TrEMBL record:
Source species taxonomy: Bacteria, Bacillati, Bacillota, Bacilli, Bacillales
Residues of the Transposase IS66 central domain: 2-40
Superkingdom of the source species: Bacteria
Transposase IS66 C-terminal domain mapped to chain residues: 47-87
Protein name: IS66 C-terminal element
UniProt xrefs under Pfam families: DDE_Tnp_IS66 (PF03050), DDE_Tnp_IS66_C (PF13817)
Listed PANTHER family: BLL1576 PROTEIN (PTHR33678:SF1)
Length: 103
């Protein structure tokens, strides 16, 4: 009923359900994370990939960009980290998804 009071809200939760579908599908595969550290690493990578997708980036090229940049960065400098976040305007065009470029 909240969508009746606030026009910004969607009438259904299809977008949310589509967003969590990969989590549901991957659930059985994640049973093989046999240590807490392995599970944490999987969760971090999954979060990076899904955030990249949500921001219109190609996850493969974005991860490749991160793996190239992170070893050479001062990770204590927040400005450096801000430049590599998926919503940053400084992300290379090569990381942007073809779908986003054609819109």
């Amino acid at each position: 009923m909240a969508f009746l009071e606030d026009g910004r809200l969607e009438i259904d939760n299809n977008r949310s359900e589509r967003a969590i579908k990969p989590v549901v599908i991957g659930r059985k595969a994640w049973l093989f994370s046999n240590t807490p550290n392995g599970a944490k690493a999987s969760a971090i990578i999954y979060s990076i990939v899904e955030t990249a997708i949500a921001n219109g980036l190609n996850p493969y090229y974005y991860l490749r960009y991160l793996f190239e940049q992170l070893p050479n960065m001062d990770l204590t400098d927040n400005d450096n980290l801000d430049r590599i976040l998926p919503w940053s305007t400084t992300i290379p065009v090569s990381c942007i998804s073809f779908k986003k470029l054609t819109k």
